[in-house]
Amino acid sequence: MSKQIIIVDKSDKIIGYRSSQGMNAKDIYRVSALWLTNSKGDILLARRALNKKHHPYKWGPAVVGTLEKGEDYDSNIVKEAEEEIGLKDIKFNKGPKKFNLSDYIHYTQWYTAVVDKDSEDFIIEPKEVAGVRWFTKKEIEEKLINEPDFFIPNLQHYFKLFK
After folding, report:
1. pTM exceeds 0.90, yes or no
2. Residue ranges making up the domain that contains 38
3. Do residues 57 and 47 make contact, with C-beta atoms less than 8 angstroms apart?
4. In CATH, what number is assigned to the domain containing residue 120?
5. Per-residue pLDDT tens for 69-102?
6. Coil vs helix vs strand at 149
């Protein structure tokens, strides 16, 4: 059975559900995302799996998940953090909610957390994530200038949001 994605209106109110295959370009959906740092201020980014429909093999936020029927933003970020990178029993701080009007129209509820863990110690789900790595702010700034295609298209906006 196909996953039922929550479809919302421009006020983020639920108006229905669609299978992921049945979605169209005008559908507005919900996403939760995690901006993960360590106590040194480094940022954990995840490389999207090669099979991903949106921005395959690009680096982006540590965790991103599309909400399905029966979920809210809070429950989704807990589920996705465990599924994608093996994070459990972490206190997530609710951040801003942003309306993204780009190639894919969605609301993103941001969360932040601080975790001191080596990148090799994260348990990644290969269907979702090709790898994770800690980046310094300086590394990200330089790559955004010199290699912007290294990242998902909106990473520069997210970086500024949490800088």
Report:
1. yes
2. 4-162
3. yes
4. 3.90.79.10
5. 999 999 999 999 999 999 999 999 999 999 987 7
6. helix
